[in-house]
Amino acid sequence: xxxxxxxxxxxxxxxxxxxxxxxxxxxxxxxxxxxxxxxxxxxxxxxxxxxxxxxxxxxxxxxxxxxxxxxxxxxxxxxxxxxxxxxxxxxxxxxxxxxxxxxxxxxxxxxxxxxxxxxxxxxxxxxxxxxxxxxxxxxxxxxxxxxxxxxxxxxxxxxxxxxxxxxxxxxxxxxxxxxxxx
Length: 182
Prior knowledge:
Blueprint: H1 11-16, E1 19-20, E2 29-30, E3 36-44, E4 47-51, E5 56-61, E6 65-66, E7 75-81, E8 84-90, H2 91-94, E9 104-109, E10 116-130, E11 150-156, E12 159-164, H3 166-177
Parallel strand pairs: 4-12, 8-10
Antiparallel strand pairs: 1-5, 2-3, 3-4, 3-10, 5-9, 6-7, 7-8, 9-10, 11-12
C-alpha cells in the first residue's frame, strides 16, 4: 500500500498572497451536489462580480507598476511578475469609478501567451453560488459597460453577484482603450 502525499506548498506563493487556480476548468461549474456553481468572486467599485475560475491564472499582491505615458486611465502601465512583463488594466477606472483607498489585488487573466494584469478591489476568492438564487435578466440592474459581458446574476445571501465573461470584457476593454492611441 502506497501513501500519496500532497505537494509541498510554494512558500513564496504563500507569503505573497498569490493563489493558483485550476486552468482546466472551462466555465462556472456545476458541482456534485447539483445546485451550485463554483466561481471566482471579486469587487470592482460598487459591483460584486464573479467569473469562471479558468479565466484567472493567478491572484497576487499588486507589484510595482510602471506607468506608460499617453495611455487611457484604465491602462495603468506594466508590471513584472515572475520575471515576465505584463500590461496592467484597472477595471475600476474602466467602469468610471474613483480609485479606492483600500488594498487592491492583481488578477492575472487571459491566455498564458498573452496575460493581462487586472486590478480589482478586495481579495478575490472562490465562491459557491446556488443555482436556485439565479436572477432573471430583468432583475439585475447593470452598468452599461458590463451588460454585453454578463453570464448570469445571483442573489448571493442578499448581495447582487454578477457573473461576467472576463475574457470578453477584457477583450472589448483593450480594443476600446487603444482606439486613438498613437
